[in-house]
Amino acid sequence: MERWHNRVAVVTGASSGIGSAIAKDLVNAGMTVVGLARRVDRVKELQKELPMEKRSKLFALYCDVGSESSVNEAFDWIIQKLGAVDILVNNAGTLQSGHLVDMNPAQMQLVLQTNIMGIVLCTQRAVRSMRERKFDGHVVLINSILGHKTMTAMEGVVPDVNVYPPSKHAVTALAEGYRQEFIGLGTRIKITSVSPGVVDTEILPDSIREVIKDRMLHSEDISQGVLYAIATPPHVQVHELTIKPIGETM
């Protein structure tokens, strides 16, 4: 991670779970980190969990990744105050429990706007900063195993993850799309999709938690995977990283 010391990383959805763990680990690895979230106070609370000498390296900034104006306002601040974006971790995502056949369409649209367009909007701004400086940055997409398959049918259980798997399948396609674009544009910007199995976070529906029980990953497990991908030599790209807990059957 030495080459990333004092570089700027932006982590979306940094107020809890995987995003919080990644933000803390990147600061502890020597980076300046901007944690984007709607719940800014929770990102500020993270500073108290850092060593005193590193707390000033974590910035908490409001951003609704599904809103183009909010994304532009946040990235304008980052460029003005910190000068650049060197790493972007697209972690923000949402899952709204409900059934495809009768769920409020507005809730499903929120999932798609956050999980797909949130990545597109943030990545446009980050990559613009990288290309303007001809900097070989890194874009990380926090995906899911549900971006590669659908829920396994279980007798007596009605799936309630609706458009979440389709939104994550889109993330898988985005990762390959970015890889091809980065090459075609003559850059050496890296793209990594990280696909966790079940992680013990706030987003996990009770229906899945009850079935999985103790066969879950922790947010810190995913963060360590992200740091591994970021720390690879310049000629190495971890395009897809799947992380599952032992015993997971999904």
UniProtKB/TrEMBL annotation:
GO molecular function: oxidoreductase activity, acting on the CH-OH group of donors, NAD or NADP as acceptor
Pfam families the record matches: adh_short (PF00106)
SUPFAM superfamilies associated with the record: NAD(P)-binding Rossmann-fold domains
Highest rank taxon of the organism: Eukaryota
Keywords: Oxidoreductase
UniProt KW tRNA-binding keyword: no
Record keyword Disulfide bond present: no
Family statement drawn from the similarity comment of this UniProt entry: Belongs to the short-chain dehydrogenases/reductases (SDR) family.
Name of the protein in its database record: Farnesol dehydrogenase
Record lineage: Eukaryota, Metazoa, Ecdysozoa, Arthropoda, Hexapoda
Gene name of the record: LOC108074121
